[in-house]
Amino acid sequence: MFSSLTFFSPLKVNELEYIVDSFRDSFDHLLKDNFSSEELLIHEDKIDSIAAFFVQPLLEGLSFDDFYFFSDQEAEQRLFFSRCRSSISVENIPYLENNPFQVTYFVEFLSIVSDLLVDRGGVFELMFKNQFLGELKKFRAIDSLVFLDDQREIFLSKESKEDLTHPLIHDVYKELDRLKTKLLPHSELTEKVQKIYLEMRTNKTRGVELLHNTGLNPKDFGDGLERLKFWLKKF
Predict the structure, then answer these.
(1) Whole-angstrom Cα distance, residue 67 to residue 222?
(2) Is the pTM of this model over 0.70?
(3) pLDDT tens profile 103-115
(4) Residue 152 in this model has a pLDDT that exceeds 50
């Protein structure tokens, strides 16, 4: 496992700095869109430990031959490196197995930047961006974190550890059973709440499958369940 790495880019230093600075802001928004204030406090230590990106020009005298590389990619990587004008140094990377926020930080950044060469240090071979993204798939990202209940906490079902059971899901199904086949004017619901309602009424799914099928992020899903519960109680 690497604790530091360097991204090499053909962009100018000021161009790469602009992308990195903009990305920091967009990642903050991503966190706020997906997690409540309470959840962000719970995960504060992991978020604070995300390794900083430092943009700099290539070190004078640095050569492609200073690195290890895949022999079958030598020509392609050598040519790419010859065009690089800037780099990003990343130090003190937290243990990726324990920090989905760092994993997502890498994945989200790499999704918005043009191709890069990645040096993981030591005897690791250089990788292109897409190869490195493939390595990151081995680790959990923030979409693996589940939403929390009234105290922003969710528990595992006793029947199956793969099925996440949320008290609000139980409450909503209780209301649906009460109403049985009564058709409700769901057009008055927001689009996100409609997705939950139609999935639960039509397919009667639960837990992870329900969350996945709605296509919502955990925070919107949890908020939507609560709104749906109180809306159903009106009938």
Answers:
(1) 48
(2) no
(3) 999 999 999 998 9
(4) no
On the question of pLDDT at 116 being above 90, the answer is yes
Give the amino acid at 175: E
Burial class (CB in 10 A: 0-12, 13-18, 19+), 8: buried
Name the pairing type of β-strands 53-57 and 127-128. Answer: unpaired
User: How many residues are given for the chain?
Assistant: 235
How far is 100 from 141, CA to CA, in rounded Å? 4
What average pLDDT does the chain have? 84
CA torsion through residues 30, 34, 40, 46, sign: negative
Residue with tokens 């020009």: 57
Tokens linked to 158: 């006793």
Write out pLDDT tens, residues 35-86.
Answer: 888 888 888 999 999 999 999 999 988 999 999 988 899 999 999 999 999 9
Q: How distant, in Å, are the alpha carbons of 86, 138, 204 from that of 167?
A: 51, 31, 15
Question: Is 180 in contact with 192 (CB distance < 8 Å)?
Answer: no
163 close to 157: Cβ distance less than 8 angstroms? yes
- Classified as helix, coil or strand, 60 is coil
For residues 160 and 81, what is the distance between their CA atoms, to the nearest angstrom? 50
Residue 172 has φ and ψ, to the nearest 5°, of: -65, -45
Which DSSP helix (H) or strand (E) runs through 90?
Answer: strand 86-90
